[in-house]
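Q: Could you write out the predicted structure for this multi-component system? I'm mainly interested in how the pieces pack against one another.
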Amino acid sequence: MDTRHLIIGNSVAAVAAVEAIREVDETGGIVMVSREPRHVYSRPLISYWLAGKVDDRRMDWRPRSFYDELKVRAVLGKEAVRLDAAKHVVELADGGRIGYEKLLIATGGTPIVPRIKGHDAAGVFTFTEWADAERVRDFIRQRKVGRAVVVGAGMIGVKAAEALAGIGVKVTVVELAPRVLAAALDEPAARLAAGAMTEAGVELRCGAEVEAVVARERHAAAVRLKGGEELPCELVVVAVGVAPNAQLARTTAGAVEVDRGVLVDDLMRTTAPDVYAAGDVAQGREALSGTKRAIPIWPGAFRQGRIAGLGMAGAEPERYDGALVMNSVSVFGLPTVSVGVAAQPPGDAEVLVSENAGVPSYRKVVLKGGRIIGAMLVGDIDRAGIFTGLIRSGTDVSSVKELLLTEQFGVLSLPAEYRKHVVAGAGIEV
Amino acid sequence: MRRWLVQPEFKVERDLERCIQCQVCVRQCANDVHSYDEEDEQVSSDGACCVGCHRCATLCPTGAISISRSQLEFKPNANWTPESIRNVYKQAEGGGVLLSAMGTDRPWRVYWDHLLLNASQVTNPSIDPLREPMELVTYLGRKPDQIRVERGPDGKVRLATEITPQLKLQTPIMFSAMSYGSISYNASQALARAAKAAGTFANTGEGGLHPDFRQYASNMIVQVASGRFGVDPDYLNVAAAVEIKIGQGAKPGIGGHLPGEKVDAAISRTRMIPQGSDAISPAPHHDIYSIEDLRQLIYAIKETTQHRKPVSVKIAAVHNVSAIASGAVRAGADIVAIDGLRGGTGAAPTTIRDNVGIPIELALAAVDSRLREEGIRNQASIVAAGSFRSAADVAKAIALGADAVYIGTSACVAMGCHLCQRCYTGKCNWGIATQDPFLTKRLNPDVATRRLTNLLRGWSLEIKEMLGMMGVNAIESLRGNREHLRAVGLSDREMVILGVKPAGE
Amino acid sequence: MKRIYAREEFCLGCRLCEIHCLVRHSKSKKLIKAFRKERGEVVPGVMVESAGHVTFAMQCRHCDTAPCLEACITGAMHRDKKTGAVICDADKCVGCWMCVMVCPAGAVRRGKDGKEGKAASKCDLCAGDKTPVCVLNCPNEAIVYEER
Amino acid sequence: MDVQPNPTKEFALSRGERDSAACAIAGVINEQGRRFNGERIIRMIANMHDRSNGLGGGFAAYGIYPEHKDLYAFHVMLDSAAARENFEEFLRRYYEIETEEVIPTAPLREIRNRPILRRYFVSLRDRVLGEHYDLTEQDLVVRHVMQVNGQIKGAVVFSSGKNMGIFKGVGYPEDIGRFFRIEEYDGYLWTAHGRFPTNTTGWWGGAHPFGLLDWAVVHNGEISSYGINRRYLANFGYHCNMHTDTEVITYLFDMLLRKHRLGIEEACVALAPPFWDDVERMEPERRELVRGLRITYAGALLNGPFSVVLAHSRGMIGFNDRIKLRPMYAARRGDELFIASEEAAIREVSPELDGVWQAEGGKPVVCELKVPLDAPEKEPARA
């Protein structure tokens, strides 16, 4: 089989690309190369796996028959280390070389590990891939871990904390920002989230900076905060963020232009001919600002992968409508949703808020020029997608502004034209 | 004054074993019979406001609701019926004219139920309508007494008599005059669409023709009534035929009144009257005080329509109906529509609805005989109206001499009407006789059109069966063929008027 | 593909669609029992919205390009090959509510199915039944199931 | 108003309101006007003996009274001397009576309850015609026949044409023929009828042929539209008193052909019109004509199963209902044209035929004399 399409990566963007290619090109050879020696699995599920809520089988994001059915040659457990864009060849760590007609870089992101003292002690882990979770689990079992510190209260940190707490580990979360999920939630929403965490027995240290991991016998024994306080623990999970894993692209001596991530246009093309990038590694247009940003969002990765795949297969290209920052995080059972510019609205924005601490529930809509640019929901998040749709479409909602936060707000409240569009369904001609 | 002597007419009962508190009933009753108590989390019902329309019971998914007549009985009295007592209470409390809707519910004799149809046995074969053509096509309009033909130089024979405009019906059943205003937009639309689909005609009533319904105008008869609502040359010309409404069976000699609150923007436009103003139809046409005035109006309409439309005159069946019908024919009517005692209405004084006019059967028979006696039967078609409940009623009317019939109540029932007789309240739970947007949307015109078309189709098939069983294959062989009728339980005099023999003779 | 469409101009707001949807997706499938015992457990895939006299029934559009499919981190949300319907496999769903967040119709809701007692709940077109129950039971044909 | 049935005509065996029947019909014409005697028509109708039941039979013969060819030949049934007196008084009021006589009959055991049978050769008094500027002589004759049959107790005019006669009564047709001695008459056109009345027993006046002026109709079948045909005719002054549906056929033909001056073909369209579906497919001019005829003469549509032979001085028309529910065959041999319910009846008198065919539903078989009526007297053809 010739290698018409070479895909580096095995997660959401890569899979979406493969599926898109197969929609138009049923026979062209596809090779997927992945550093991880695993079947397609879902990275966001590792916290559920760690907590025992998802077994190995359910980690599969696509059925086991996926590669066969889509006629994909999967080269697993091998890392692509060099790209010769001019020659259309990728070199693997074991020296193997794979030529391609079209290449997709979907290598995802790499966890950021701050260079603090003791970060290399045993018992300090990052938490982005399945192997991380396996290591954490094994470590907990072997060392009978009773206390853990999670550094970072972003999405990964919160989910890691939830998983650890779920298996009986006493968790303290340290966050530099003054609140949890600071990028997604504003103060009132974060308070609700924090409430859910503390209620579950998690200790929270917001506005605190980690100075070092205190190691004993090369094993983590505590986390020392600035100011000297020490939080004793046997396990440290570092979850302060991820950066695009653009290493491969950087080997082209500038043929593929790289900023934080691999720069792509709206068709997911890089600056090198026949080379595409998608997912967390890519730096594409952001929907609201229009600037190119690397935004590690699952649905965005899927969309980018799909667009890249269609482009690679020569189909009528769909254009990327830009990434929309969004996240749905269930914080210890409390659902939170944040879409667009919601946590830190610009000064000229109009902000609508409704809160019901008892339930608890919190809703916030950020408007600018009659259009919604951000929405945040905590608690009752049902129908949050309507806001997402309105943000995406840029629909003028001035006429229905009063209804946005009412209980009966729904599709019916939307402006008639937009409602017609929604009723017909996305991707369906009205 | 509180209406404390008038006790509820209905009792609404809820089977708590079956009620699931889904509140469908609460959401459907426009009379607020059902309510949901948030505190008790319990639906309850108050029969006092129930009109017996069955909307709630019909939609209740578990059949938990039953509605019965109030068990509060008066001491039996053959003279003072509960209705008469209640009516006195009502008037003593309200001091006004009691209103009713739909046709009279008094037990006036229904002659259809005393007439029986004939069938073939041995001597002439009955005809199977599934195998043989069975023709219901009916032409309404003035016919010449005789046809003249001429033979052209090519030897071909041509028609030399001019035939005046005709309405061609695929089935001899039309929809009675029901105005947009008295019934909803959706109901009006359904009637028009069904008429078009079935190849027959719907009648606008006196409410004008909504611009949206112009597309069905080729299957619509437009009415010119005493209020002249919505009448202009365009209205007359766009329709298939024009009907001058003199009277209505439910309220002969009485005008009409559409309250201003029902005259919304669309109705105002259609009727050509200011929004919110009462639409009052005077009792008589104030330009028709005599038969010669009628003649002038007929001719004015014919002139306006370049003599391209048949003109119908609709009269209520009153005592001298045959003389009036004869006068109308001689005044130029191409069609005479006669509306009998049991004809429906959206609103009429109860006492008039229940006590004025004569049954359509007798009126129809009298008119047909009279026109034949005068030798002018060919000059006009007769359309009978006033409660046709089945294909058999229609067949009997045709045998008595009707060219076609108008159905109003049956059409409404087909659309869902439950004959609660409260059209005048504007709170029709079935979305028919109302302009309330909460209620009008309950009548999906697609559904209503289909139901009406089905009704026409069903009745037409039944009429075909009846024709076949009588051994004829064209409706004109039944029309006026009273040999195919026999009477049971009627007096000699009634049989003479009906022109039928007693069963067994 | 055939989809369910609401005709809001004829929606009565009676909510019989919700009731029948609930029953269809209940364990008992018996109207009275399902409504009494499983109400709150089963989230109907169709929801009636009303504002004044305007009411209409909304359910999943089964979009050609379905945002919920793209957002699903577990692969639970999938497209049925036969009917074209977008269906959530409750056993796979972990209740992350990404789908809830991205559905522009607000047609995916938090349900109580699945192992964890939380899984996305949405219209499944009655799992390939000839006519979905909401369509079948709408007294005014305000919900139609058709190719458009 | 319809004339009430005359309750006094007592020479019937018994009778009901209306009679319909399944019968035998036959007709034969010589297009050259050559006359022949009644022997053959008796044989034709006798051949179909089983189609009748002895409750009625009759014959119409044309060209049998050349010596009185300009006079109306009224054949009358009378049930008493008083009836005769009343009838003759009525007759004299309007007519000059040239000749009157008993209709010759042969004594036959099979024929019972015979009424008085007389014929009168008459002409309308000029005075009478002068009194009615809006009516033709024939209109007046029709009116007088109606008056006699409807109003004079015990009297029925059953033949009223010129140079033709109807002979009918209760019995098998061949017996009726012998009874009236029809083999002694010579005519160029003969029709015959054998009756099988089903709804009622027969009566003399209700036997076929049914005549008015020189129309004579024999009819097999039932007119299910009778009720409306009768009421329709009443509009035009035709009153049915004979309690037989055949009557309406005669009157309708008289009205359409004589009064409304339609051609035979158009008259047949009016009486047994094509189906609307077929009308819609016609070319426009034809469609307008047929539609005009059908809607105008809706009350004249003859419905139900029938085959009919209509005879008149100039010819004969065979005619079926729209969907041909009754049999009718036509055949030709030389100058002669035959119509009969069964082909066998034709073969009985003319084993060799040039052609034989079944008439189509609603499409008439028309045969007319090829010579003028007042052509020189032809020799009687060989029987």
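A: Regarding packing and overall arrangement: The radius of gyration of chain A is 23 Å.
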